[in-house]
């Protein structure tokens, strides 16, 4: 009797994922869509493109602008460090000098541009000395605008706009000078200003606290809105964080690119006969708070406000000017143009 031949059992092919991942591992959560993966996609794209940051430093000679920038980025990024000359004279008029660096830390690349303003506040007559600085900031907005309105514009427009202006206040311990008030009053409308008290180690703690309080009162009295501005707080959490920062402004800072050995630790500081002033010790100065604001917590917000507020105001004004000029050239009455815009 012949043995019945049974057909081979049909085995279904193993089901794999879309990209060939193995089956039979952990239980798959079928309710998971994967929307949160956008964060990783954005991170990878940002890492490839890199970042840009343009910082302007303004203040009279001898306040430690170059040293503070070198301290902030732990490298020789200031104009004086790169373009040092044997003899440097005070320029007769304000000059605008910028220098760019490519900085990389843990795989993150950033193009840093430091804009210096030698000659500011160093003359006998400092009337209208803010005008070249205002012109430079507006020129960067104009360059960006012209690239933006091109028919065949670049995929990524080079960003030379000034994101932040660090304004150095001399450590007099009394009050702001008329020059300080006028500069910040005018420039705060076109750029993010962060005021700092330079060389704060020349003041006692009591003098420093009094000076900071006096400056905050004068800023309020003159309607000067420095960064972070109250009207740009997005929610209650932002408001709470930024209120703490506003209570500390202006930051009393000390800069140093010299390393010293203190209790077995290498640190940046300024050595005196009474001891070593540790730059990153918040009990000694507020450099750490300034660094966190500019780099670790608010860098992107500073850039966003530059783009969406300061540059946007400039763009609207310029386009309105162009529309008015075109209307006059075509003989259209101005009130007709205004009615059309409304």
UniProtKB/TrEMBL annotation:
Keywords: Cell cycle, Cell division, Cytoplasm, Cytoskeleton, GTP-binding, Nucleotide-binding. One of its GO terms (molecular function) is GTP binding. It comes from the Eukaryota. The keyword tRNA-binding does not apply. GO terms for biological process: cell division. Residues 49-325 form the Septin-type G domain. CDD domains: CDC_Septin. One of its GO terms (cellular component) is cytoskeleton. SUPFAM superfamilies: P-loop containing nucleoside triphosphate hydrolases. It is found in: Cytoplasm, Cytoskeleton. It holds the Pfam family Septin. Belongs to the TRAFAC class TrmE-Era-EngA-EngB-Septin-like GTPase superfamily. Septin GTPase family. PANTHER family: SEPTIN (PTHR18884). This is Septin 3. It comes from Platichthys stellatus.
